[in-house]
Amino acid sequence: MGRKFESRLDAGRQLARALGAEFDVVLVRKFGAPQSLEAIRPHAEELICLEAPVESRAVGQFYRNFTQVEDDEVVTLPARSAQTATHA
After folding, report:
1. Which of 2, 52, 53, 72: CA 20 to 30 A from 33?
2. Is the distance from CB of 28 to CB of 45 less than 8 angstroms?
3. Per residue in 21-47, pLDDT tens?
4. More confident position, 41 or 83
């Protein structure tokens, strides 16, 4: 993981707060190398990771489909989530 990922985490936190979110940011990952998890830990109030093997080759080895999520989709997720919650 690099600075770009950490910057996106911080941007997401700031956006959620600006939209009035009154909750902690919980980052949930299926997989993470221990050193990567330590790097992102300060960017969320809570970090949950299902697998943190010491030796790994690539993140993609843990997924059947590891395609990129575009920025536009990430930006629309909070609004879609809020809309779903109000219609539930």
Report:
1. 72
2. no
3. 877 778 888 888 888 888 888 888 889
4. 41
pTM of the model: 0.53
* Cα angle: 15, vertex 47, 69; to 5 degrees: 55
Q: Sign of torsion, CA 64 12 38 51?
A: negative
Amino acid identity of 86? Answer: T
Contacts of 18 (CB under 8 A, 6+ apart): none
DSSP E strands, 1-88 = 26-31, 46-51
77-86, long-range: CB < 8 A, 24+ apart: 78/15, 78/16, 78/19
